[in-house]
# Entry
Amino acid sequence: MRIHIHKEGYKILAFGLMGLLILNIAVNIIWADLGIVRWAFFICSFMLYIFLLFFFRLPARSLKTDPGLIYAPADGKVVVIEETMENEYFKDMRLQVSIFMSPFNMHSNRYPVSGKVKYVCHHNGQNMVAWHPKSSELNERSTIVIKTTEGTEVMVRQIAGAVARRIVTYAKENVDVRQGDELGFIKFGSRVDIFLPLGTEVEIPILQQVKANKSIIAKI
# Structure
């Protein structure tokens, strides 16, 4: 499987490398006689940079589009499957499926269905932990609604967590999108909610680990 570095990581990786190099040079000058300190700092710096490379990885994942399936829009653990009131767009009861992404998950978000983007809206907000029940309504978030060719509207909501401070959304209203293509990216720990029509047949249990473009969330 081919793995690339996501474009959202280019600047962070470049500045991170320069910053760590400068810090290591400074440590080598200040603690020139303390080899253990210099080596410990170098090892910690190296491990931090490896983690950044790992975080911004972008594995190549293709799928064969299927209008009858809803694929996971993100890597992570399913933490919510419940009926809930959606107050931003639908303003009625919907089936909510929430995926929590730890800092160790791949953070590229994908379209769970093909169709036309009907709604895109970014909200500034708080930074509660992503698994908090109110994070879907109170945290920084971006909401995207896709209408399939069969007329079903599916909402995807990107939610920032306690560590995440930047949500990137590529979706544009009135643009046709393809199932599996990239929807956006959330930096450093977060959550993605999907809102489906009531009665949708969910294919995964609570606490299941899922992968974007690999795991089937539901059938429509």
Notes: The chain is about 20% helix and 40% strand. The radius of gyration is 20 Å.
